[in-house]
Design goal:
135 residues, alpha/beta, four-stranded mixed β-sheet, 2 helices
């Protein structure tokens, strides 16, 4: 079994993918727009043909998937965080600062009893991230 997060950005997926490319070095390995689907989507609102129906993204050794979903309603990523484990504090600071741009620091990146660097941030899309230096 393999579990991969699937994030729906309600119309802001391409913006999020560009942000993660810059902030984390993410690589979009697959992207399909609604207009490229071989089957029509009757429930998709008009004017969203160029939005992302599905994307697969590599971040380090992990894969996440993303979509614009139905392109309606506010973004809501409550009750879940994505965790990044890195081997040094400098790398942790780089990711933490990049994800913090336009976001909200939930816990500053600090030394803890389990790590020389741990912090939590909600990025500009509301996705919560935990950055942890693993020794």
């Amino acid at each position: 079994m393999h579990v991969e997060p699937y994030l729906c950005f309600n119309g802001r997926c391409e913006e999020a993918l560009d942000f993660y490319r810059d902030a984390l070095g993410a690589e979009v390995t697959m992207l399909m727009r609604f207009k490229d689907s071989p089957e029509p989507h009757e429930c998709q609102p008009a004017g969203t043909e160029d939005k992302v129906m599905h994307a697969t993204v590599k971040i380090g050794e992990s894969t996440i998937m993303a979509s614009d979903g139905r392109c309606e309603g506010p973004l809501n990523f409550e009750g879940i965080s994505l965790s990044i484990g890195v081997s040094d504090v400098a790398q942790a600071k780089q990711y933490f600062e990049a994800l913090s741009q336009g976001g909200e620091v939930q816990m500053p990146l600090v030394k803890t009893f389990w790590s020389p660097g741990f912090g939590m941030v909600a990025d500009r899309f509301g996705v919560s991230w935990m950055i942890n230096v693993v020794e």
